[in-house]
Design a protein that fits this description.
A five-stranded antiparallel β-sheet has the order 1-8-3-5-6, covered by helices on one side. A three-stranded antiparallel β-sheet has the order 2-7-4. By secondary structure, the protein is of the alpha+beta class. The chain contains three helices and eight strands.
Length: 146
């Protein structure tokens, strides 16, 4: 059984932003020639997340508001006391709230592949969440099957 690894790269903006990566995953799956199997989609960062949900503009705004209420950036977090931490990079951001959001969401999703297509429901999309700052992000897709 073949196993294929591919990366999706995304340039994000600051704050919470949500990207529909379903078309990129579909293209990768199509190019593997795998008809039936699974694809693991894995975020390689501690302040990002993945979810399967509806890609509807107003719902996405609701999600952003909900996450911001649960983990307000203005709250006091120990992780943000940079002067008390050891061995931190010079460009270390104040981002404890982003780490906490990521912990409450998923960092991976597994999607079945049936007849060469992602077996998502009618309104389901694979969504990538940037929860921190503007950066280049990478998502690993691992596809296996026959």
């Amino acid at each position: 059984m073949p196993i294929v690894h591919k990366l999706i790269e995304i340039e994000t903006t600051a704050g919470i932003n949500i990207h529909n990566i379903t078309p990129a995953i579909e293209k990768i799956v199509f190019n593997t020639g795998i008809s039936n199997g699974q694809v693991l989609v894995f975020s390689r960062h501690t302040t990002t997340a993945l979810a399967i949900n509806e890609d509807e503009e107003r719902l996405l705004e609701d999600i952003k508001v909900f996450l911001s209420k649960l983990f307000p950036e203005s709250e006091r977090y120990l992780h943000n006391d940079l002067h008390l931490r050891k061995n931190i990079p010079e460009d270390e951001p104040i981002n404890a709230h982003s780490h906490l959001m990521a912990m409450m969401l998923n960092n991976n999703e597994i999607i079945p592949i049936v007849d060469g297509r992602l077996a998502l429901g009618t309104y389901q999309s694979v969504l990538f969440f940037e929860l921190d700052g503007a950066r280049k992000r990478t998502i690993l897709c691992q596809i296996w099957g026959e």
